[in-house]
């Protein structure tokens, strides 16, 4: 028979062992009861009473030790789980928007203020939308202006957001005033070109839309993005889907137009292309060019971001280096 002293019990397990050894069905107190038969009839009542008293005493002590043990355990647990509400909170590092997203959102804001709505077309386009209906026929030399990624015969990764013009005019009747932001793809790669980049197309079709409307809108846009002191200038250019076509320059915000390395001494920086929607493009979409006219423009979002933030290598925009990205907290 093992000996367990209640005073020395340290754990719930030892306490259970104590119960089994003395108070349980096979414990020594139950054993004593069984021995009662061997005691004489005269002594038996007194002996029985004594054993019962002893059992009650042992049970009471057992309960006391158990209650004390429970109390100590609870105390320890409470102490462990205590929350110090005066501790400073853990600061979670804040992320930031990608510079392309920041600039895109700003551009959308400016044009939304002029009443433009957003349309997003597919990144995989057919030849028809990307070229043919934009007045770029199969053997048109202008196809060489953009090095196209072909997905299949007559299926391309869109080389510009201009197919969005066709999709919008197919779906809506004038008046139309939409922005088409999105990713575009060209097989071209150097410090200022990436095979994937972003454009923002603008299209307005209504009665009596002229080049003045284009200049007014873009002047407003440029001032909101680069500063109110910046001036715009239109230069004649060529795109198959606009006639006349223009290249839009802004006065250099680095040197104020005096000439520096950013503007290569010219005082002007080229920022985007646009023009009056070619009558053939309107006709291709079932819009009568005698009743309506349109303006369109295409802005390279990377180009605007690089100019605005002085980023000299387009690759930095896609490396996801946090040291670079953290600098653009809007
Ligand atoms: N799509 C032309 C480009 O990617 C830009 C443009 C858009 C020009 C709309 C005129 C009108 O170069």
UniProtKB/TrEMBL annotation:
InterPro entries: aa-tRNA-synth_II, aa-tRNA-synth_II/BPL/LPL, Phe-tRNA-synth_IIc_asu, Phe-tRNA_ligase_II_N, Phe_tRNA_ligase_alpha1_bac, Phenylalanyl-tRNA_Synthase, tRNA-bd_arm. GO terms for molecular function: phenylalanine-tRNA ligase activity. The keyword Magnesium applies. It is an enzyme of class 6 (ligase). Keywords: Aminoacyl-tRNA synthetase, ATP-binding, Coiled coil, Cytoplasm, Ligase, Magnesium, Metal-binding, Nucleotide-binding, Protein biosynthesis. Binds 2 magnesium ions per tetramer. It catalyses: tRNA(Phe) + L-phenylalanine + ATP = L-phenylalanyl-tRNA(Phe) + AMP + diphosphate + H(+). Its main location: cytoplasm. Transmembrane segments: none annotated. The keyword Ligase applies. Residues 109-327 form the Aminoacyl-transfer RNA synthetases class-II family profile domain. Residues 55-84 form a coiled coil. It is found in: Cytoplasm. Its cofactor is Mg(2+). Its EC number is 6.1.1.20. Pfam families: Phe_tRNA-synt_N (PF02912), tRNA-synt_2d (PF01409). Mg(2+) binds at residue 243. HAMAP family: Phe_tRNA_synth_alpha1. Tetramer of two alpha and two beta subunits. NCBIfam families: pheS. Belongs to the class-II aminoacyl-tRNA synthetase family. Phe-tRNA synthetase alpha subunit type 1 subfamily. This is Phenylalanine--tRNA ligase alpha subunit. It comes from Allofournierella massiliensis. The lineage of its organism: Bacteria, Bacillati, Bacillota, Clostridia, Eubacteriales.
């Amino acid at each position: 028979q093992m000996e367990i002293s209640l005073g020395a019990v340290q754990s719930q397990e030892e306490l259970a062992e104590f119960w089994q050894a003395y108070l349980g069905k096979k414990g020594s107190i139950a054993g004593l009861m069984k021995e009662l038969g061997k005691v004489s009839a005269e002594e038996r009542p007194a002996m029985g009473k004594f054993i019962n008293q002893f059992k009650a005493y042992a049970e009471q002590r057992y309960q006391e030790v158990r209650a004390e043990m429970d109390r100590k355990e609870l105390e320890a647990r409470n102490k462990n789980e205590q929350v110090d509400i005066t501790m400073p909170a853990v600061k979670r590092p804040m992320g930031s928007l990608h510079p392309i997203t920041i600039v895109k959102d700003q551009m959308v804001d400016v044009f939304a203020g002029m009443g433009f709505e957003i349309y997003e077309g597919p990144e995989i386009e057919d030849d028809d939308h990307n070229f043919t209906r934009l007045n770029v026929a199969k053997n048109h030399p202008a196809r060489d202006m953009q090095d196209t990624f072909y997905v299949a015969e007559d299926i391309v990764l869109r080389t510009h957001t201009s197919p969005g013009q066709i999709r919008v005019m197919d779906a809506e009747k004038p008046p139309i005033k939409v922005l088409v932001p999105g990713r575009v793809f060209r097989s071209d790669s150097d410090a200022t070109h990436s095979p994937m980049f972003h454009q923002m197309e603008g299209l307005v079709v209504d009665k009596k839309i002229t080049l003045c409307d284009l200049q007014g809108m873009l002047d407003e846009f440029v001032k909101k993005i680069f500063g109110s002191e910046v001036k715009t200038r239109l230069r004649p250019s060529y795109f198959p889907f606009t006639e006349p076509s223009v290249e839009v320059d802004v006065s250099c915000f680095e040197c104020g137009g005096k000439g520096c390395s950013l503007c290569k001494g010219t005082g002007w920086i080229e920022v985007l292309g646009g023009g009056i929607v070619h009558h053939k493009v309107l006709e291709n979409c079932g819009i009568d060019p005698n009743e309506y006219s349109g303006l369109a423009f295409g802005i390279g979002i990377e180009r605007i971001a690089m100019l605005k933030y002085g980023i000299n290598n387009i690759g930095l925009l896609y490396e996801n280096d946090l040291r670079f990205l953290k600098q653009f907290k809007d």
